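Quick one: structure for this chain?
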Amino acid sequence: MHDMTLYESKNHILVCLYDNDRDPGGQPRTWGNQYLIKRNNKTILLHPAGLNNMARVLVAIHKYTSLDQISDIIVSNQNPETIQAMASWLMLTKADVHISNVWVKSLQECDITTEIDRIHGIPDGGMNLALDDYYGIQIIPAYFLNSEGHINVYDPESKILFSGIIGSATTNLTGDLFVENFNQHIQHIKPFHQRYTSGIIKLAPRHCEIAKRLKQSTLFK
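Got it. Here's what it folds into:
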């Protein structure tokens, strides 16, 4: 497990906890990123670790904050590696858990017998989540860009968008945390997005022409 500070100011820090190591057999593990957004003495954990790497994540977290300071956990999707250890996270922290309304019931069925009242559904229109009286992060709907309950998170101070599954790749990874050549990197994320964003037929940006009748064979050409 590795860690890297992505942004830091006097009272605001964003940290990536990432696992790009190989397993004991020498094969690459599925790359997993967890993020900490810490403001003063309050911390948000984004993409909680699953059972396979939870112990390593806990060790890394203690370099930056304590479990008692984790006030909120944000779950961007319903994938097993994201929610399978939720009962343990609820036991180890006092955090409220935020997940799309679509997946609240599924999450409650992950061997969670207590603390169910700490699981909160994210409204379909998204929401702001306060870190103090004057500052909050934005939880943004990104539905059907992987699943019907997928969400993104935007931190206004650092201007970092935590895009969840969007931009993900599962093969041919360099091992570096940052992409240096995006034209080359897009070929690695192409198969994943062709499979999981197949519902897009028009791409309507703010500052250029609308692309219509998209074909998955040309979207990542």
